[in-house]
Design brief:
208 residues; alpha/beta; Rossmann fold; seven-stranded parallel beta sheet; 8 helices; 44% helix; 15% strand
């Protein structure tokens, strides 16, 4: 396997995996990297985003292949960098073995977490288990309002578990709206959250 892998992992749904993955994919393409996506989630959020992007003629073009966790090696697209969007949930021994294989093969596992108690606790525990096996894991707070006590609590809790990105993705409507339109905030500085996504890409690029 020659491709570098950025895997976006979220054991719970709704934490922003596909949104982060789409922005990291576009950011890589804007940097001139031959990057492609791999959507392993049956909900097809990343693949659907790419189809909308192609249909509307957005540049740069972003290829997204589809596959399953249990066959991820066979499903990998040919690219310099592959951004992998994983499904939520951890079910079945064969699934867990394949997911472990994926995260251990990844150059970086990026784990979005919402600053809400049950969510970031579940996310932290799963990510820590993979990190103990040797995975390179980093948390990023998503939809984080710095004025809220819950954000500070989540920040402290995740830092105790491992590396936490200094940049936090704010709760911006543009981030969700552009995902539905096949766009990403990182490609246009006028969008809310664009600067934070760009900073997140700088963090990722420094690791991979």
């Amino acid at each position: 396997m020659t491709a570098r892998l950025l895997t976006v992992l979220g054991p719970k749904g709704g934490v922003g995996k596909s949104t982060v993955a789409s922005n990291m994919l576009v950011a890589a393409r804007l940097d001139g990297i031959e990057a492609a996506g791999l959507d392993l989630d049956s909900q097809r959020s990343l693949a659907g985003w790419a189809e909308t992007r192609t249909a509307t003629g957005r540049e740069p073009v972003c290829r997204v292949a589809e596959g399953r966790v249990t066959s991820w090696r066979d499903d990998l697209p040919d690219a310099e960098l592959v951004v992998v969007d994983t499904p939520p949930g951890l079910e079945g021994d064969s699934y867990l073995e394949a997911l472990q294989d994926l995260v251990l093969a990844s150059d970086l596992v990026l784990v979005p977490a919402l600053p809400k108690g049950p969510t970031f606790i579940k996310v932290r525990d799963v990510a820590m288990a993979f990190a103990k096996q040797g995975a390179v894991v980093a948390f990023v707070l998503n939809e984080a309002d710095p004025r809220r006590v819950a954000t500070a609590e989540a920040r402290e809790y995740l830092r105790e578990a491992g590396e936490l990105c200094e940049v936090e993705i704010p709760p911006r409507e543009d981030i969700h709206r552009t995902m539905l339109e096949g766009v990403s905030v990182v490609e246009d500085g006028r969008f809310g959250g664009s600067a934070e996504m760009a900073t997140l890409w700088s963090f990722v690029a420094g690791r991979i």
